[in-house]
Every structure is written in structure tokens, then in C-alpha cells.
Design a protein that fits this description.
single chain, mainly alpha, two-stranded antiparallel sheet
């Protein structure tokens, strides 16, 4: 039943993606974060109290997310085991973002090929935090490849990893951790204090999944007939070329697989951030690198599902 739920959720994500008006736990988590953050800011004024309040916010949001998910599954299962199973499938489906990443990347690709530069910048702004208003085509292409590579960890590998460790409730709790980082885990002045705990805990949560992505993307590169040897080598060599302890692992591996260079300076919230370069520029980046990266994402994500399913089976057999 457990593996069947994983596969059913995976197929739902593959076919349906993330319809904008369907009920979604991440949107509810985002609303909860907004409410709690407003109360923390009302009560806390100094940096030290904002850090403490941000820590309490993290505990509340993650704890409530896990508790509600666990309670809903328990109540649904009490009604009927199949009702509980369906609720579990729905929860797992909502935390996977492979199709959503695919659609977002393809939208920018389509605008680059057939639309205007302004349209490309606008569609890119929906999926990245950097300033897109002055980006040129090569910079847009680089941003899409980086985003797909990085979010393969946040949106697929890590949720599956926590699903393996603690079922749907722990996977939902991970999405709360990740959503907290997305909403308040920034280093500029507004969020530096209140988001400190959220940013650090997201780093901790993604530590193992990010390093697994190095191996998964390298195998995916081999299966997709890209440069698997360079993926493995550059993924490890440039793993520290990022302010995050995790982001460079998938980005460098994809850069190595495609033979391109990622990273470099960008503007975030009006501030210029000089990020180091990742990868070797064996050739110039091209719009075709977007579908190549999407293909690597799908293969690496499928490998993650298979890997974690095999681990689950191995442990189940060992305990029986």
C-alpha cells in the first residue's frame, strides 16, 4: 500500500501538475506563515527578539503542519483504510513539484523561442528571486537551468527523502521548512533576523538530499547521453561555489553534464550579489539547454523514487 501510494502520487504529479485553483497544503502553510510572522513582528522589535520570534515561528509552523497532516490521515483511516490511503496519496501528490518545474521552465523557453524578451523576463520572474528586468537571453537561460537544477532537490528529491523517513506527515513538515525558507529565509535587512532560523533549518533539511542529487544527476546524465563524467567531477569540484551549503551540488552537476557555466553576479531585491561561477564554459549556453535540464530533472527524480522505494522495500523485508 505504501509504495502504491508513492507511485500513484508520482503519476498524478506527472499528469496533472499543480492546477492553480485546487486545494494545496503549501498555500495553507504560506497563509499560516503570514499570520504568525505578522504577530511576531508586532511583538518583537529588536534583532535578538526577532531571532527568537523567528525560531518560535519555525517551531509553530512546522509542528502544526506535521500535526495536522498526521491527524487528518489518522481520522481518514479511521473512517476507512481506503479513505486514509486516498488522503495520503493526495498529500504526497501535492508536495511533488516535478511537473510544475517542467511547465514553468517550458513557459520561459517558449517565450525565448517565439515571444519577446520582455515576456521571457516576466515569465522568469515568476520562478526566481532575482531582478529579471534587465536580463539578456543568455542570463535568462542560465537562470532557468539553475532554478530547475536547484528545485529538483527542494521540489522532488527532498520530499521523497522525508517521505521515506516518516511518511506523508514528515514530508509535509519538510514542505513547511522549505516554504518558511522561501518566504522569510533571505539575507537582506527585512528578513535577516526573523528568517535566520528558517534559513539555517532549511540548510540542515536539504543537506543529504542535495548531496544525493549529485549522484542522481550524474546517473541521469549518463542515461540521457550527456557528459556524466564531467557531471560527477564538476559537481564535486564546484560544490562550494555558492553561499548556500547545498545549492551548488545540483547546479554544478548539471553544469558539468551540459558543459556550460552557471552562477555569476545577479541582483536580488535591489542588491547586487557577486556569486562565483559554477562549471566550465566549454560552450555558450543555449535555449536548448532548458529542455535538456528538464529531461535531466525527470530522470533524476525518477531515479530518486526508485532508490527510495528500494530502500523502503529492503527495510520492510529486514523487519519482517
Amino acid at each position: 500500500m505504501t509504495l502504491l501510494a508513492w507511485c500513484a502520487a508520482w503519476l498524478l504529479d506527472r499528469w496533472l501538475g499543480d492546477p492553480p485553483h485546487w486545494p494545496h497544503p503549501v498555500r495553507w502553510i504560506g497563509t499560516l506563515i503570514t499570520i504568525v510572522q505578522r504577530q511576531v513582528r508586532r511583538l518583537c522589535r529588536q534583532d535578538i527578539t526577532l531571532r527568537i520570534g523567528g525560531g518560535i515561528m519555525w517551531l509553530l509552523v512546522v509542528g502544526i503542519s506535521w500535526g495536522v497532516a498526521s491527524g487528518v490521515i489518522t481520522l481518514a483511516t479511521a473512517l476507512h483504510p481506503w479513505v486514509g490511503w486516498l488522503v495520503e496519496v493526495w498529500m504526497i501528490y501535492t508536495i511533488l513539484a516535478t511537473r510544475c518545474l517542467d511547465d514553468s521552465a517550458r513557459a520561459v523557453e517558449k517565450a525565448l523561442r517565439h515571444g519577446t524578451l520582455e515576456e521571457s523576463r516576466e515569465k522568469l520572474s515568476w520562478i526566481v528571486g532575482r531582478d529579471t528586468s534587465a536580463l539578456q537571453p543568455a542570463q535568462i537561460q542560465r537562470a532557468v537551468v539553475e532554478t530547475v537544477a536547484e528545485n529538483t532537490v527542494d521540489g522532488v528529491i527532498a520530499p521523497l527523502f522525508f517521505l521515506l523517513l516518516g511518511g506523508a506527515p514528515l514530508a509535509i513538515a519538510y514542505k513547511a521548512v522549505n516554504t518558511l525558507d522561501s518566504m522569510v529565509g533571505y539575507k537582506h535587512e527585512k528578513y535577516r533576523a526573523i528568517g535566520m532560523v528558517s534559513a539555517r533549518m532549511d540548510d540542515v533539511a536539504n543537506f543529504i538530499p542535495a548531496r544525493l542529487s549529485w549522484l542522481l544527476f550524474s546517473v541521469a546524465a549518463w542515461l540521457c547521453r550527456q557528459d556524466a563524467a564531467s557531471a560527477l567531477r564538476i559537481g564535486f569540484r564546484d560544490r562550494r561555489n555558492h553561499s548556500s551549503p547545498n545549492c551548488a551540488w545540483p547546479e554544478a552537476t548539471v553544469a558539468g553534464a551540459l558543459g556550460i557555466r552557471l552562477g555569476g553576479p545577479n541582483n536580488y531585491f535591489g542588491q547586487r550579489v557577486d556569486k562565483p561561477w559554477i562549471g566550465d564554459a566549454r560552450r555558450e549556453i543555449h535555449v536548448d539547454d532548458i529542455p535538456r535540464t528538464v529531461q535531466l530533472m525527470w530522470v533524476a527524480s525518477t531515479l530518486a523514487l526508485v532508490l527510495f522505494a528500494l530502500v523502503h522495500l529492503a527495510f520492510s523485508e529486514g523487519l519482517s
